[in-house]
Amino acid sequence: MIGRVTRRIFVDSHSPALDALLEATECLRSGGLVAFPTETVYGLGGNALDGRAVQRIFEAKGRPANDPLIVHLPSADALPMVVKTIPTIVSTLAEHFWPGPLTLILPRGDNVPLSVTAGLDTVAVRVPSHPVAQALLQMSGLAIAAPSANRFGGVSPTSAEHVLRDLEGRIEMVLDGGSTPIGVESTVLDITAPIPRILRPGGISREALEAVLGRVELLERKASQEEAQASPGLLDKHYAPHHARLILLEIPQTQELWEEFTHQVAQAKKEGLRVGALVADEDLTYLDAHFPALARLALGSLSDLAAVARNLYAGMRAMDEAGIDILLVRDFGTGGLGLAIRDRLYRAASQIIRRAQNGA
Length: 360
Hints:
Layout: E1 7-10, H1 18-29, E2 34-37, E3 42-47, H2 51-61, E4 70-72, H3 89-97, E5 102-107, E6 122-126, H4 131-140, E7 144-145, H5 160-167, E8 173-176, E9 187-190, E10 197-200, H6 206-213, E11 217-218, E12 245-250, H7 254-270, E13 275-279, H8 284-290, E14 295-298, H9 305-321, E15 326-330, H10 338-348, E16 351-354
Parallel strand pairs: 1-8, 2-8, 4-6, 5-9, 10-11, 12-15, 12-16, 13-14, 13-15
Antiparallel strand pairs: 2-3, 3-7, 4-7, 5-6, 9-10
Helix pairs in contact: 1-4
């Protein structure tokens, strides 16, 4: 499949040029694949109602057929394009969270290829807020299936450069609108369940959903490699660096965190491995004093998890590309976007080291 020329077209992230959108629209309508920025990560777009285009998405990514795709629409008014029936709760959720990083699980329309939904009778749908995504959806008039624009199982792309490193030669076009503002995928909410259930934490927090809906459940069970999944991003191993072995330090107590960190660094050096760390801004003083030569990236402050989420995937990719063998990553809790950050780190990790909160 490699051998295509992938065009990179730079666009203004706030007001994309008409000629770029026309070219991308023509590509999509002819069955081609276009990567484009959303507010979460870059998506790999194809016509959701064209079975061959959908198959090409799976081929380009190396994605298993049991992992469904999210269908992107310009507005809630377009839901009848892909949804059989629209539950009344949708209008409330759309009013509060669309356009935005919320994906809803809804009854699949008969015209949606089963390849989009992994053979299920439900379809994942969202309305993105990014101006480039919105302009492309409105101009094309298509329902666009768009998983993350990277090879399956790896770190999601938050820039066009990331897309090209993974998919150059496999797709026709990338609309380069700069870095994505949220940096982790959308929250996936199943509203076909008796109680709304978060299948994948993401850019809309559980707290925000509960403020609107009341009780919201969180899916605890991880999906097997073989079964059809209700949502993307549920496999136990996902979002992982290509080379670096990620070790998540889920240790809330500062002293215990640094004791384990020191142990891991010493062990890796004994084995001749190169160590790197993804940390919070608040950790830099300690690292500068005790590990001045250690490769490190601060993702953001513990009080600004939006920054941490925005920088997470780029940080993981940077450490991987720097040849880091062991990547130590601190935990950021579960409040707000912390739940989505932890979910991604859980699935990317080769090892998770836990310590209980004192008094727990």
